[in-house]
Amino acid sequence: MKIRLGVLASHGGSNLQAIIDHIKNNDVQIEVVAVISNNSDSFAILRAKKEGINTYHVSSKTTTDVGKQMIKIFKKHQVNLIALAGYMKKIPSLVLELYPNKIINIHPALLPKYGGKGMYGMRVHEAIINANEPYSGATIHIVNNQYDDGKILNQRKVVIEKDDTATTLAAKVLVIEHELYFDTLKLLAEDKIMLQ
Ligand code: GAR
């Protein structure tokens, strides 16, 4: 399928940037058509603007209906796949209802371990280091109405060394995230993996 991607990001947007860069350097049927952030001054928004991509600030602090606003944006740009890239808010149920099996997320651990409510960002890496795990990694999964619970589409591992800390682990995982997200999108665009 030709992917018209809507990306949701809250902070740095390094995954967003990696997706954009890989699309430029590869012959793929994927276009990032809209970027939404709950954070008006997020670096993700700046990155998208710099690339000439439509950006939107949608936040429960400025609207009573985040879901409706998102749907409006997705329809306007004919989005057929939504990628969460460091999006730290819950997806409104309206969006889940209208885009079943069309929303994917990247999680900085090997799900089903170290997922669920409260497990995001550095908290995940801290929990993994505290548990003395031998490895970690990243997971791309379909988003449903439970945290980090939908079908796993792709995963990649990293080895944890004795001197790794949550900070060094986060950096290692981010490197593989930047490859994994695009590789998974490419597999979807080429119909090599399915969204159900
Ligand atoms: C990434 O490590 C991503 O896996 C994580 O936030 C970071 C965002 O980085 N997402 C979650 O923890 C979601 N549960 P980025 O803004 O630089 O792409």
> Which shape, going by the Cα principal axes?
globular
Bound ligands, named by name, code or SMILES: glycinamide ribonucleotide
Separation of the first and last Cα atoms: 14 Å
The CATH architecture comes to: 3-Layer(aba) Sandwich
Return the CATH topology. Answer: Rossmann fold
CATH class value? Alpha Beta
Instruction: Report the count of strand segments.
Output: 7
- Poorly predicted runs: none
Per CATH, the superfamily is Formyl transferase, N-terminal domain
| Secondary-structure class | alpha/beta
Tell me the helix content: 25-40%
Specify Rg, calculated over alpha carbons. 16 Å
Beta-strand portion reads 15-25%
- Total helical segments: 6
- Report the oligomer: single chain
Mean pLDDT, all residues: 97
What letter string, H or E per element, gives the SSE order? Answer: EHEHEHEHEHEEH
In terms of topology, how is this protein built?
Blueprint: E1 3-8, H1 14-25, E2 30-37, H2 43-50, E3 54-57, H3 66-76, E4 81-84, H4 93-98, E5 103-107, H5 122-130, E6 135-142, E7 152-159, H6 166-189
Helix pairs in contact: 1-6, 5-6
Bound molecules: glycinamide ribonucleotide (GAR).
Name a few traits of the molecule.
196 residues, alpha/beta, Rossmann fold, seven-stranded mixed sheet, 6 helices, 7 strands, binds glycinamide ribonucleotide
Provide a short characterization of the protein structure.
It contains six helices and seven strands. By secondary structure, the chain is of the alpha/beta class. Strand 1, helix 1 (14-25) and strand 2 (30-37) form a beta-alpha-beta unit.
